[in-house]
Amino acid sequence: MKRVTIYDVANEANVSLATVSRVINGLEIVREDTRVKVQEAIEKLGYKPNAVAQGLALQKTTTIALVVPEASFNVTGQIINGLLDVAKIYKYSIVLHTTTEGILEINETIENIIKSRVDGVIIYNDKLLYDELSELKRYQYPIVLIGNKMSDESIASVFVDIEKASYDVTKAYLDVEKNKVAIIEDRKNPFAISQMVKGAQRAFDEANKEGFTFVQIPSNYRSSYEFLKGYFKDHKHDLILTHRDSQALATINAASENNITVPQECEVICMIDTKYNAMVRPQLSSIVIPSYDLGAVAMRIMTKLLHNEVLSEKEIELSYVFNRRQSSLINL
Amino acid sequence: MKRVTIYDVANEANVSLATVSRVINGLEIVREDTRVKVQEAIEKLGYKPNAVAQGLALQKTTTIALVVPEASFNVTGQIINGLLDVAKIYKYSIVLHTTTEGILEINETIENIIKSRVDGVIIYNDKLLYDELSELKRYQYPIVLIGNKMSDESIASVFVDIEKASYDVTKAYLDVEKNKVAIIEDRKNPFAISQMVKGAQRAFDEANKEGFTFVQIPSNYRSSYEFLKGYFKDHKHDLILTHRDSQALATINAASENNITVPQECEVICMIDTKYNAMVRPQLSSIVIPSYDLGAVAMRIMTKLLHNEVLSEKEIELSYVFNRRQSSLINL
DNA sequence: TTGAAAGCGCTAACAC
DNA sequence: GTGTTAGCGCTTTCAA
């Protein structure tokens, strides 16, 4: 089946292609009867405008690039859901890119994004730092960052203040003299972890206390779990904060192996709330970061950027709530 | 910064745009010194070929559309990882589409796909049935289905024989006289569940036994869990098969509420293996469906379809293994 | 209100 | 080995 073009429709309807273009774009300067004529031709031929050609002619593609770390869908899944829902509303397509560790790979990804001439790029990525962004900025892409607080003429961001969340939680524990607080490393999210550490440290400093511990672990679940099993043989904490649910689970399981009961002897709280938090036993207390909203808002901001609407604020902070479940005892 | 085009490069290098086109496409009929000259111009100007224009000229976009159900990333995450890895190798971009229940929405998605002039579409979707596919076929899109067994001139598929998996598991239990087998419904994956039921029923039929139960449940985790809590008050099973890990967790938690111990009094096995299966306690036994491979193979097949390579087989079955963990007792 | 024609950036004959 | 030119399918001035 030969692809039907705007010419075919024009022919069929006995009008010029300019007229067809006008009706498919809903321009009001078309007489009703010719509009109908064209519509019928479109219908009859099953014509669908070629978005590629439109993209060339208009110099915009109504697609945006989304960049997330490879294998991160447990964390980014909800974000993507939010993103796509809003993208649908504004009729944007989403091209999905994932990045691995290598700087080479990242540059290749950026190169591909630039070649694809998307209208903007949304990034959820702890590691895509300012240097890499500059390449994107050279080409004047509107950029929305998810998770990192940052902005300038072409960059906006949507995030949750994890430093504050970490501070709040830690402070609540210090207030009741539960002073042995530890944060478990998350190698995949160095920025988030650095924020958490900063917040906890601030709480300690303000309380004039010491004893905060940062526990470095291997990079995957299996070895983290093994490591923690050993770690808990001679370490005790009142509260352990983790970034992801998987690390909280590793912690709880490792503690359990050492006959440390959660939450009685050691409380565990993680930062990211997934549906598994409520499914596992003990149910995981967590900061509920509004992932879906993070994605939805990011996409909404992007549409504003693209339509040159004024943004009253380019750094949008979303609030979290604390959801205490079974793995911890203190309410905030 | 004005977008630099192939003309600018041609000017800078004092050659025609055809020559520039040749070097960026790596055609061998360019003299070395002019190639170098052009490369330098490209470098100097920071030129990146416009994929949109290439798409128009070549009548292909080297992008493929991926369609998955909305909010399915827990299940499709791994598939997408595999898909993207292979897509990178062959330099294809992936446009992500999600579908919700409504038939209208689905048609809109298909419409958008057609407009976007992707080179092919890969679908993981229990509900996108033959009727909807026909629209795509009208436009001669190569299609690769993940999860469903189906094929014709333009359709290929990659799947795991869930019917057989379900049969195997059920048979193993019937063989040792554990005859009270139940399958928990999964409203989001009616096709998969129907296959599972079929397999279990076949095992029962062959063994000339009765007692297979299909348990219908509400659609979300929370209400499923509540429902199952009630259900287990007056129902006992030797083995419960579920599709997703979340349903297995709901089952285990509900059983536990009724003081039914897993796996001693009731064994639980699910079909899809996620990383959480090994993290929760008891660890979930499961059929390990090779999700990553499903995605990777699907994309590989797609490249073959697009390059007109002959496919010896258009229905590719991947094999599963059974991973017994703590929630069940019998090895297969 | 409609049509003619230039242009968006690139590829691929075809000619030189 | 390199240049010229006609598209690819659409939008958008500018005229009519």
Q: Quick gist of this model?
A:
With about 325 residues, the first copy, chain A, is an alpha/beta fold. Chain A has helices spanning about 5-15, 15-25, 30-45, 50-60, 75-90, 105-115, 130-140, 160-175, 190-205, 220-230, 245-255, 290-305; strands at about 65-70, 95-100, 120-125, 145, 155-160, 180-185, 215, 240, 265-270, 285-290, 315-320, 320-325. Chain A has 3 domains: about 5-55, 434 Repressor (Amino-terminal Domain) (Orthogonal Bundle), CATH 1.10.260; about 65-160 and about 290-320, 3-Layer(aba) Sandwich (Rossmann fold), CATH 3.40.50.2300; about 160-290, Rossmann fold (3-Layer(aba) Sandwich), CATH 3.40.50.2300.
Q: Please, could you describe this protein's structure?
A:
2 copies of one chain form a homodimer. The first copy, chain A, is an alpha/beta fold. Chain A folds into 3 domains: 6-57, 434 Repressor (Amino-terminal Domain); 63-160 and 290-319, Rossmann fold, CATH 3.40.50.2300; 162-288, Rossmann fold (3-Layer(aba) Sandwich), CATH 3.40.50.2300. Helix content of chain A is 45%, strand content 16%. In chain A, strands 2-1-3-4-5-11 form a 6-stranded parallel β-sheet, sandwiched between helices. In chain A, strands 7-6-8-9-10-12 form a 6-stranded mixed β-sheet, sandwiched between helices. The interface between A and B is large, with 52 and 53 residues. Strand 2 of chain A pairs antiparallel with strand 2 (93-99) of chain B, so a sheet runs across the interface. The first copy, chain A, binds a DNA duplex (16 and 16 nucleotides) through helix 2 and helix 4.
